[in-house]
Amino acid sequence: MKKEKLDDLAIFGGTPAFREKLHVGRPNLGNRERFLERVNQILDGRWLTNNGPFVQEFERRIADTVGAKHCIATCNATIALGITIRALGVRGEAIVPSFTAIATPHSLDWLGVRPVFCDIERRTHNMDASHVEELITPYTTAIAAVHLWGRPCAIDELSDIARRRKLKLIFDASHAFGCSYRTRMIGTFGNAEIFSFHATKYLNSFEGGAIVTNDDDLAVRVRLMRNYGFAGYDDVVSTGTNGKMTEVAAAMGLTSLESIGEFIDVNYRNYVRYKLNLADFPGISMLSYDENEKCNYQYIILEIDDSASKINRNQIQNILWAENVLARRYFYPGCHRMAPYRSRQPALRLPHTEELANQVLNLPNGTTVDVESIDVICNILKFAIARGDEINHRIKDSSRSVPIPDR
Ligand code: T4K
Hints:
2 domains; binds ligand T4K
């Protein structure tokens, strides 16, 4: 139902626009029969994990897709980051953006490496290379950059800094599988890049990740570390952990990989629909992707400017949640404002990160989202913004916490 008066909004007692909850990050599923066939093969073969045939095939397919020499699949991207940090001998301090998933700095902190938070460029949402240079100290050993929303960060500038200052360069490419930078695929830059294949990513293996690199020695080390350092039966040659991907995860990954063309087509169709709906609407700007590059179009990212709209991002999120549109405010409030980092550096200010953390809203995309739903979501957004002043008066406590939905 179209919202025509304020009382039509579910937050003021109207009927929610959607009966079912519309999530950000609903998994894309490939061909179910093909997946189940693979699961049967796994059960028949009784090889469930530890470098099984599907994991090996998945690794080959990922490496081929991005043009990297090596791919080492893992149980998730957080472990992949940790193994890479350890294998590269990163210690002391590493420079990392704060506007990212907490997994990025935590993977450093977990290994006793101090994350030094860097601000982002306001326009790109990615690490500000000029700020990186200012943060280098005698203790800095690495830069851990992120290709946020699948948009490549300043790879050339960061590579130059890393080369000049003799730092390791790791790219957290969790969002960026299938994306390119200057027509070269993400997965081939820095010392190594890390993909995530978590359920919410456009290519998923339930949980999963991968380290991709062109460095032969590093590939050997991370492969050993993924399996406790075992080089063969009874032969442990390095420290290590358990970062292995299971066969069933690889079967899901392979099945998803067969459908990525379709996933991207749907994501792109939806992205264009959101763009059309929200073009030139005061108070909302939507992040664009470079059409000259390959992109997975997984993330629909809005910036809500309340100086223009008179209604802030949190209020808009509350309005959408009441309508059963579970928009997310990734990555609020910024990692430097979360434990344990906040108490270590309470005075740290990262102006662009903090501004964006208060403005960004992530909308549903993927194969479970159709264009009709997008039109409804955009109409609610436009209605709420156009009537922002009145809504603002009616929602007395704009800072009230966002309700947690039933799963
Ligand atoms: N680096 C970056 C830049 C990252 O964004 C991430 C992860 C990592 C590193 C680490 O990657 P992994 O170690 O996870 O491989 C999610 C994901 O858990 C996380 O993978 C992701 N980034 C982060 C941005 O988002 P949550 O807490 O929002 O996830 P969750 O499980 O609540 O899922 C979000 C929504 O997705 C749910 O509300 C509903 C829907 N959903 C989720 C799952 C798991 C489903 O419909 N079905 C499902 O099975 O963190």
